[in-house]
Structure formats: structure tokens, C-alpha cells
Amino acid sequence: MVLRGHVDWLSRRQMIGWAQDAAAPDTPVSLFISVDGRVVGRCLADRPREDLVREGIGHGRHGFDFTFPEGVLPALARCTVAVRREGDGAVLPGSPRALDPITAFDEDLQARLAHALAEPVDYAERDRRLVFLMKEAQRLRQAGADDAGMAPELSSRPRALVIDTVMPTAGRDAGSNAILSHVRSLQRLGYAVTFAPADMVGDATALEAEGVRCCLSPWYVTVEEVLRRHSGAFALVYLHRVDTAGRYTQLVRDTQRGARLVYSVADLHHLRTARQAEVEGRVDLAAYAEHLRFLELTAARSADAVITHSTVEAALLRRHIPAERVHVVPWAVAPNPTTAPFGQRRGLAFIGGYRHKPNVDAARYLIEAVMPAVATSGPAILCLLVGSDIPENLRALALTQPGVEVIGQVPDLASVFDGVRLTVAPLAYGAGVKGKVLDSLAAGVPCVCTPAAAEGIDLPEPLARLVADTSVGLARSIMALHQDEGLNQACSEAGLAYVAERFGEGRIDDLMRPAVERAV
């Protein structure tokens, strides 16, 4: 009797095909399947197949789909699978078929490994398997790190490790802009830069596109692991913010002997907190500020070089550590002046991230005190609140003051700068250099500031005359800039010139070099 059919698909999980007895075309064929001559199962070729119907092969119910029992196919040896008709042993066309050993970590191998690990075992066998898997995982992680360029012999340049609390995102906040600018400066100064966030997560696409190697999960679990696995690999370790400096300074000294340790303060948290405590009259915050002061000064004393963006903070730090170890290094800001004419722009904007308490306090002061003072000085002026995470109580407060409009987060600040004549930064307290001020000046949009907002950047004339410490003084500067095109233009040109002179990449490199030069 002629056996028609074919084995259409064979894997280590299943086999699919069809079979028909030419002498009894409407009767399902019973098949048995063998592996290396050993029968491992039976199946009936009675499944409907539309392709068989189209080809005119009987009624089409001649298909079979056989799933191999677990463990019958050897994973690491070649085997032969045969399909025969039960009764006379006639071999199905397309059979026997050979399966090669598993050499790739495909779904079949993964399923078999999972099945083997799921089998009940005693404690000793469980521990043996766990040790094996951990050893292999460690080997793969090390191989992944080496492939990513972390092997010391793969780089002819001195290597710098930059550690921050989280992965930076361009434009998200001043801290991100600063760390990205300093990473690029290190690259221009000749370093091969590696970046590690303390939480070991984040999107590394943008940084890696710039040639920065990133240490993330699953290749690394902690920053501690990065430092220990690559002991002695780094000529420079740059710690951003007091949190990272407090956690990793000693381990850097232990694992990267001879490396230059740079601590970038971002801004002095204890200074900002002490000022907030004074403004709010809070004894608890004052005590916490003293605790932060101890941590920050300890980190500064433990570093080979300390970087701050602010001239004011530099002077404060030099009272506690040798002056030559303190370096004022801002971040690069590129002039990008708005092209919208003065006559096509109206109003002002306050820009900030509202998870930052000083910004919430400043926005409240702007709504409750500054804008009412502006309203009494002349025609109504529109005020925009721009930035992420604006709290609901601030939105509600904005509704009580005519002319104040909540915009929230925008994808690009250029759209804001193209629409307003000036910005305002009425901060009552803070520390460091304020990114919102620099961004505004770089757009050619003058910024009216309180002393706290202008601190640390040494504004030139006529920009310095826009600084005021009262609501009436701020309102006076706002009205002058909004009404006087000549004054606005002069301040715009002064701001652009100031940014180009003080915040260009070349100047950042010149300021960064002394902070890192002993490691080069």
C-alpha cells in the first residue's frame, strides 16, 4: 500500500506534516514516531489542511502535529527522527530527518534549560545549580562589559569614570545639562569617558552615540561593582553631587589607586537649605542644613579637586579647603537668539521645574506680590508659568491673579522665548547657578532676577541693573524691559555677549583642565 505525505516541519519541540493511505484515502493514517530507532510516541493524521484541499488530496483531513515529550531529544548530540505507518512500518516521505546538536541559545534550548532547572532536587543539588548559573552569569556580564570597551587594553586614552545619581537627559534640568557638558569637556581633553548612574538604569542611547560607555543593568548591579570589577582602570573619577561623593569616595580610593578624584558639588545643598530655613523660620531645616554642611565639606576635603559652577560657592569652599583645589567650571551654553521681533512678542515667563521647592515658592511670590505690583504700574502684562510638575494648589492660585497663565511643560523652550519679551526669576532662596537665567540670556531674552537667582554668575551691566530684592523693584524692571525696546535690545545683546564669552565650550575646557590636569 502506497503511503503518501511529507514531514513539513521539524524542531526539537514539534513535528508537523501530513499522511494519506492511497488505498484508503478517506481513512486517517496512524503513525508512530521514533528517535534513533526508539519509539517515542504515536499520532493520527486526521487534522484538516486547507492546502491539501486546494491540491485535491482527498478531503484534506490528513494533517498531523506531534509534540515531543520532554527529554526524548538529546540536546547535545545529533539524532534521527523517523515517521512510520503503524502496522507495516512504511516510512513517510521526507522521513527520516536529522536534528543537529543545539549550538545556539534558541527557544528550544531555553525551554529545555528551564525544564531541567524546574525538576525537584535536594538542597545540595539546588546549591550546585545556583553556583553554576551565577558563575556563568558573571562570565557573560564580564564579557559584555569587555565588549563595550571596558577592558583597559582596549583604550589608548586615559579613562575617566563619571558617577551621578541618575542618567542625565539633555534639557531636563540644569544638573543634566552640567554633567553632559562636563562629560563632553573630558572627551575633548583626551579622556575615554565611562558613565555610571547610581540606580544602574536609564536610556544610554544618547550618551553612547557620543562615544560614552555606560555601565547599566544587567551588566552591572551597583556602582560598587563597576569600581571593583575594573580596579585600577580609571585615571580620573568624577563624582557629581554630595550623595555620590558620600557613598563612593572611599571605595574609589580603595579600588582606583592613583586616580584623581574630582567632586562636583552641582550646588551646595546646605546653603540652599539654610536659606530656606531662614525664609520659612524652620528650626528643623536649619539643623538639617548643618548636617548637609558637614557632609559636603567632608566630601570636599576628601577630593583632589572640587568643582562648583558658582563664584559665590567657590569663595565659601575656599574658606574650608585649600583655595587651589577649588575650581569654578560652569557648563557650556550656546547662544541661540530668538528671531521673533520685539513688536511680535508680549508678556513674560517664569521657567522652572516645580518639584524644586524654591521654584514653587518663587512662583507663589510672583503671583501674589510681583504681578499685582506690575498691574498697578501700567497696562496688564501676560505672565506665563512654564515647566514640569506644577502642583494643583499653584494652578489654583494662578486663577486668582488676572493675566497669569499656567503653560506647564513644553517640548522646547524656544517656543516660549519666541513669544515673550522677558523672563523673571524671583527666587527667595537657592544655591548654585540658575539654568533658567542662562537659558534666557542665551535666547537673547533679558531676565529680571532677585539676588538669589543672579548669585554666582557675575552679571555685567546693564543686566546687573535688572536685579531687585523687592516686589516693587522687580515690577519696575519688568515694566521697563516690556515697554522700552531700546533697553530690551541692549540687555539682549549684553546677555548674548556674556553667554558667548563665559559659557563657550573652549572656555569650559580651559576651566576644566586645571581640575583634571594632574591625572593626564
- The fraction of residues in strands falls at 15-25%
Q: Describe the sheet with the most strands.
A: 7 strands, parallel
Number of helices: 18
Mean pLDDT: 91
Label the CATH architecture of the largest domain.
Answer: 3-Layer(aba) Sandwich
Helix content: 40-55%
Instruction: Give the quaternary arrangement of the chains.
Output: single chain
Going across the biggest sheet, name each strand in turn: 11-10-9-12-13-14-15
Low-confidence stretches: none
Number of strands: 20
Structure description:
- The chain is α/β, with parallel strands linked by helices and 520 residues long.
- Helix content is 40%, strand content 19%.
- The strands form 4 sheets. A 7-stranded parallel beta sheet has the order 11-10-9-12-13-14-15, sandwiched between helices. The protein has a 5-stranded parallel beta sheet with strand order 18-17-16-19-20, with helices on both faces.
- Strand 12 (236-240), helix 7 (242-255) and strand 13 (260-264) form a beta-alpha-beta unit.
- It is elongated.
- The relative contact order is 0.08.
Please outline the helices and strands.
Blueprint: E1 3-10, E2 14-21, E3 29-35, E4 38-45, E5 47-48, H1 50-54, E6 61-67, E7 79-85, E8 97-99, H2 107-118, H3 123-150, E9 159-164, H4 174-188, E10 192-197, H5 205-209, E11 213-214, H6 223-229, E12 236-240, H7 242-255, E13 260-264, H8 269-280, H9 283-302, E14 305-308, H10 311-317, E15 326-328, E16 348-351, H11 357-375, E17 383-386, H12 392-398, E18 404-408, H13 414-417, E19 422-425, H14 435-442, E20 447-449, H15 451-454, H16 471-483, H17 485-502, H18 505-516
Parallel strand pairs: 9-10, 9-12, 10-11, 12-13, 13-14, 14-15, 16-17, 16-19, 17-18, 19-20
Antiparallel strand pairs: 1-2, 2-6, 3-4, 3-7, 5-6, 7-8
